Amino acid sequence: MNLNKKNLVLILFGTSSLFTAILFIGQVYHSEDGDRSFFIKYKPTFQQYFYSPKFIHRLQPTKLTLIEDKDEHAFQEYIIEIGVLSRNNGVLLPAILIQLAFTFFICGGFSMYSKTILNYEYIGWQFLINLLITYFGLFFMSFLDENTTTKIVCLSLLSINFLTILFFLRGKRIHKILRS
C-alpha cells in the first residue's frame, strides 16, 4: 500500500471528522410520537441517544434505575434545557459532518489501496453529490426508527460513496480515451 502525504491527510481528516461527528451529533427520541431527530450537541459527549425514561414510565410510575436516572439527567441537560424539542433541528449539519467523514475516509482509503491520486475536484464533487444523498438518508432514518433500517441506510451510504469515486475514475479514463 502506498501511503503518500495526500492519502495520509485525507485519512487524518476522515478520522477527525468521524470523531467530531460522534462527539457532537445526537439523536433524540420523541416519546410522544416515536420519531427521532438528529441534533448538534452543545458540548461533546459520547452519548448518542437521548430519551426521557420518566416520560416512558409516566403511566406506571416506578423508581428509575441508575442507568435510567443518568439518561434522564442527560435528556434534561441536552434536550430540555437547551430547547432542542422546541426548534426545528433538521439534519443538514449532521449530514455535513457525517459526509465529511465518509468522503475523507473513502477517498483516502481508495486512493491508498488503488495507488491512484484523486484530484481535489473529484473529492469536492464526491462530497457535494453524496451530501444530498446522506441528507435524505438521515431524513429517512429519522422516520423509520429501527436498528435494521439504520444499518441498511449506513451501509447504503458507504456503498454509494464508494461507487461515486469509481464513477469519477471511470469517467476520467473514458475522457482520456476520447481525447486521444
The counted number of beta strands is 3
Biggest beta-sheet profile: 3 strands, mixed
Beginning-to-end CA distance, first to last residue:
31 Å
The helix count comes to 6
User: What are the low-pLDDT stretches, counting only 5+ consecutive residues below 50?
Assistant: none
Shape descriptor reads elongated
Order of helices and strands: HEEEHHHHH
Strand order of the largest sheet: 2-1-3
pLDDT average, as an integer?
Answer: 80
Indicate the proportion of strand residues: 5-15%
Q: Helical residue percent?
A: 55-70%
Structural class: mainly alpha
Radius of gyration, whole Å: 20 Å
Give a quick set of tags describing it.
180 residues; elongated; single chain; 3 strands; three-stranded mixed beta sheet
